[in-house]
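Suppose you are handed a protein chain with no further information: no name, no annotation, nothing but its sequence. What can you learn? This example shows the usual starting point.
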Amino acid sequence: MIDHILFSQICGRSLSHRIVVRTINRLIELVACSEDVEAMAICENPTQLGLYTNGELQDLIYSLDALMRKGILVPNREAKVLDSRTLGINADCDVLVAPSIKAEVGADAVAMIMKSGIMNESSAAAGPAIEGQHISRDMLAAPGALLTFA
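A reasonable first move is to predict its three-dimensional structure. Written in structure tokens, the prediction is:
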């Protein structure tokens, strides 16, 4: 994700957003008529959500202290419904944006946590943000570690 944030910082958030939207529009052309798209859902990490929605990424770069010194506000990453046309997507539908807990725990991790029922367990790792904390039955990333979860 660092390369995505760096590209956005160097080349501009607007260009990053246009690249993502162009890709989405190409996918729509390949698999469906834009008139047939009734709704879209996005469930990604905060960086990808920011690129998709043309949202702020500055808070993903700096520590909390640096954010306060620089006067950068942490954007609202709650669930929301956006109009596809305002994002530049060639479909007339709602875009459902899943929530992120904070910069370190994105919507993709939230979806995995909810689907897996992990909140009902004592604890387990769930990516680099919380990996290795309070592990009781799992292991850190290493050869033989679980790669996928279905």
